TrEMBL record:
The lineage of its organism: Bacteria, Pseudomonadati, Bacteroidota, Cytophagia, Cytophagales. It comes from Anditalea andensis. This is AraC family transcriptional regulator. Residues 167-265 form the HTH araC/xylS-type domain. InterPro entries: AraC-bd, Homeodomain-like_sf, HTH-like, HTH_AraC, HTH_AraC-typ_CS, Tscrpt_reg_AraC-type_HTH. GO terms for molecular function: DNA-binding transcription factor activity; sequence-specific DNA binding. Gene3D superfamilies: Homeodomain-like.
Length: 269
């Protein structure tokens, strides 16, 4: 089975940044179906545009814009790309860098699809830093990645100890984030008292219900930025924002830039 060395992915790589143990690549996927292969390093794949199917020996991931995957090193898989333009951003982590960060605890293992909007928003910020390419790329990327790994390990470590309503409320919000609903609506569907849900939500999601919903809306809007057939007004409406000004405020609060500016960054090839 083929091993892909550091910085190598199937397709045409537009940019590569080597940051002392971390490697960032921006690659257009051009091969309809790859052979079975594995990578030398653990890495994240972040789909910026298009779609791709990724399959390993246990499961398959139907990836589209905004999909974020993590793979441990030597995790065998293959990819199937449908017709059309597909682009992925990758962050590889050398084994020595990972072992230095996790000297006494296990790092994330296997392959996983990451749905947490807080982690996805961090990755959009890493992508932004890679496109800006200034003198702060290395420290900014390291700081954002450390925060990402901290959230990822804390989430996966407590998943089995969460109450049953936690994954259910996450599913409800993801299915309905673009529609108006209330705390009482969610509590009723979960058969919980609204006070109990309000009190315990931040314990398991590290933010309030309102903050969590706004993060999902902004993250979903970011996944649409590569689409040339949608205006920002249409994106804001489809993601459930009441108007463009409300969307602009929420977006800038979370991402530090107006959506129009961030969209230009996403569209850079």
């Amino acid at each position: 089975m083929k091993e892909l060395k550091t910085g190598n992915f199937y397709g045409n790589t537009d940019q590569t940044h080597h940051l002392d143990g971390l490697v960032l690549t921006d690659t257009e996927y051009t091969i309809p179906r790859t052979e079975w292969h594995f990578h030398e390093n653990a890495y994240f794949t972040f789909i910026i545009a298009g779609k791709v199917l990724e399959c390993n020996k246990r499961e398959s991931f139907n990836c589209e814009e905004g999909t974020l995957l993590f793979h441990h090193w030597q995790e065998a898989h293959y990819n199937v790309k449908p017709p059309g333009y597909t682009r992925g951003f990758h962050l590889e982590i050398h084994k020595e860098w990972m072992e230095e960060i996790f000297p006494s605890q296990s790092s994330p293992e296997g392959s996983m699809s990451i749905e947490d909007p807080s982690i996805k928003l961090l990755f959009y910020q890493i992508y932004r830093e890679a496109k800006i390419q200034d003198d702060l790329l290395k420290p900014a990327t390291e700081a954002l990645l450390l925060k990402t790994l901290s959230l990822l390990t804390s989430r996966t470590g407590t998943r089995d100890r969460n109450p049953l309503w936690v994954p259910k409320v996450r599913e409800i919000i993801y299915d309905s984030y673009h529609e108006p609903f209330s705390l009482r609506d969610i509590a009723q569907e979960l058969n919980l008292h609204p006070v109990h849900l309000s009190r315990d939500f931040s314990k398991y999601f590290n933010c309030t219900l309102g903050e969590y919903i706004r993060k999902i809306k902004v993250e979903k809007s970011l996944s649409m930025f590569s689409r040339h057939d949608m205006t920002l007004t249409e994106i804001a409406h489809q993601c459930g924002f009441s108007d463009q000004s409300h969307y602009n405020r929420c977006f800038k609060q979370l991402m530090g830039l107006p959506p129009a500016t961030f969209r230009k960054i996403i569209r850079r090839c």
